[in-house]
Amino acid sequence: MKGETSRPDAPGRFLDYLVLAIGLGIAWIFGQRFNFILDDAFISLRYAKNLFLGYGLRFNPGEAPVEGYTNFLWVLLQALHFPFTRFPEHWLLLYNKLAGLALVVAVWWELRRRVSTRPWVWLGVLLVACHETVHAWMGGGLETLFFCVLILVGMSRFLREEFESTAGFTSAFCLGLAALTRPEAYLFIGIAWVTLIARRHDWPRRALKWSLVVAVICLPHILFRIFYYHA
């Protein structure tokens, strides 16, 4: 019977969820120590405020625009808050906390899929949850953990699409959003693209479709930078 065959694994699944809950609790509790906003976050906030006020994405209204940020998507997210609050930085701290928890969940999910020995899964989750750097970036108001989640989900999904024959282009979508968040994501996009070429007999079709999804997300931003900032 289906219920009988699943019974022996029930304690293991219970421990999986218990470790996840413990990891989330550890990350949340220790992340509360870092409720501060870094000065770099206020640079992005200034660009976001000027965008909301109609001055465009520039640091000083009336001056030639200079691209003084590297987190375009994060700036747009900040700009959305100015119509509703005078203190959008408070929301950034909330997003930092949620991104830290999302990172723990993403690690847990991927390790459960890829590692057959449960104690190693638990160890990996707890190492991430206890990592002080994760706790630190659960504050600060920057895009660091948000970027990490996009990269982890994007690359994990890419491995699934390429090595487990999972359909779709979710990896391209996630990595495209990551490239809008931080320029370092283009390194991961390049690695994925080379992998597509190296291991697929149908690589032209697959690589072109995958690249098209990335281009739809990233190319408008690249063109905007060229024409708006002349760089």
Description of the structure:
This protein has 231 residues and is mostly helical. It is 73% helix and 0% strand. It has eleven helices and no strands. It has helices at 2-6, 10-31, 39-52, 72-79, 88-114, 118-129, 132-137, 144-163, 170-181, 185-199, 203-229. Helix 2 (10-31) runs parallel beside helix 6 and helix 3 (39-52) crosses helix 4 (72-79). It is flat and about 65 Å long. Residues 1-8 have low confidence and may be disordered.
> What structural class do helix, strand and pairing data support?
mainly alpha
What distance lies between the first and last C-alpha atoms, to the nearest angstrom? 65 Å
> How many strands?
0
Percentage beta strand = under 5%
- What does the average pLDDT come to? 91
The biggest beta sheet is recorded as: none
Give the helix level as a range of percent. Answer: over 70%
Low-pLDDT segments? 1-8
Task: Write a brief structural summary.
The chain is mostly helical and 231 residues long.
Structure characteristics:
mainly alpha, flat
